Amino acid sequence: MATGIGRPAPASGRSTEYRTYSLLAAFLVLRAFGNLSLAWGTKHFPEALAMNPLSYIRAMLSPLVAAGVAMLILAMLVRMAVLGVADLSFVLPLTAIGYVLAALLGRFILHEHVTPQRWLGTALIFIGVAVVGSTPQNTTPQQNSAGDKP
Amino acid sequence: MTWVLLSIVIAATVASDLLQSYEMKRVGEPSVDAGLGYLLKTIARRRYLILSIACLAVSFFSFMALVQTAPLSFAVPASAGSFIVETAQAKLVLKERVGLRRATGALVVLGGIVLLAG
Q1: Cα–Cα distance between A65 and A148 in angstroms, integer?
Q2: What is the pLDDT of residues B65-110, one digit of tens each?
Q3: Does the distance separating the beta carbons of A149 and B67 come in below 8 Å?
Q4: Domain range spanning residue B76?
Q5: A98 contacts A106 by C-beta, under 8 angstroms
Q6: How many domains does chain B have?
Q7: Beta-carbon-side half-sphere exposure of residue A142 (alpha carbons within 13 Å)
Q8: Residue (of A58, A66, A75) closest to A40 by Cα position
Q9: Within 10 Å of residue A148's Cβ, how many Cβ atoms?
C-alpha cells in the first residue's frame, strides 16, 4: 500500500487530496487485475462453485484465484483508507472507471465481445467521473474518535 | 441462479460500504497517512469494520460464483446496481451533501454502467 511507513507529519489539504487520488488509482489497478485473475481462474476451475462450499477452498488453492483474492484484499484495504478522507458518494462514481478497465481487460485478454453500446457506456462513465471529480471530496465534518490517533 | 447471486452481491455490498464509510470517517486522515499497520489495527478495534468485512466476504463469494457462469463484462457492471442505492443512502444515512453536480455526475456514470451491462 502506498501510504508510507511509520507516523508521518499530518498532511495538508492538498497533500491529502493528492494521496486520495493516488490511492484511488492504486485501487482501480488492483481491482481490475484482481477481477481478471479471479475470472480467469474460476472459468478454468472444473467444479460448480455455487453448489459446494468446499469447492471454494479448493478453488482458492489455484494460483490464479489466489492471486486474484490477494489483489482484491489489498484493493479493499486501499479503498477503506480512502473512505477515511472522502465521501462514499464521491468515491463510488470515481471507482466506476474500474468498469471501463474490466471491459477493456475482458475484451483484450479474455477475448469477450464488446459492442459499440458498451464503448458508449465507457464514454459516459468518463464524463460522469469528470463531473463528480470536480466536487469537494469530503462534505461531512471530521469526527475523529478519541484514543485512535496513530 | 445468476439473478439470485447478483441480488446477494448487491445487498451485501451496500451494507458493507455504508458500515465502512461511517466507521472510516470517524478515523479520518490517519487512514491515508499512517500506513497499512495502523489500518489493520483500526480494523481489529472497530466492530462495524469487522461486520463490513463479513458483508464483503458474502458479496465476494457470491461474486466469485457469479463470474464462473456469467461473462466478466456483464457481472462487473451488473453488480453496480448497488451504486444508486448507495448514493441515496450516503445522503440519507451518512448525511453527505450530494448536490446537483455530484448527483448529475453519478447519474451519468450509472447510465454508462447500464450501457456497459446491456
Answers
A1: 35
A2: 887 778 776 777 677 777 777 888 888 988 988 889 988 888 888 8
A3: no
A4: 2-117
A5: no
A6: 1
A7: 11
A8: A66
A9: 15
pTM to 2 decimal places: 0.75
- Domain ranges across chain A: 19-133
- Which residues on chain A are in Cβ contact (under 8 Å) with B30? 84, 144, 148-150
Q: What ipTM was assigned to the predicted interfaces of this complex? A: 0.81
**Which pLDDT tens digit goes with each residue over B30-42?**
777 777 888 899 9
Average predicted confidence (pLDDT) for chain A: 77
Mapping DSSP onto H, E and C, the string for chain B reads CHHHHHHHHHHHHHHHHHHHHHHHHHHCCHHHHCHHHHHHHHHHHCHHHHHHHHHHHHHHHHHHHHHHHCCHHHHHHHHHHHHHHHHHHHHHCCCCCCCHHHHHHHHHHHHHHHHHHC
Radius of gyration of chain A (CA): 18
Virtual torsion, Cα A129, A131, A136, A138, nearest 10 deg = -30
**Rounded Cα distance, A38 and A60, in Å:** 9
Q: Touching check for A101 and chain B: CB below 8 Å?
A: no
B-chain CB neighbours of A56 within 8 Å are 61, 64
- pLDDT tens track for A86-117: 999 888 888 878 777 777 777 787 777 778 88
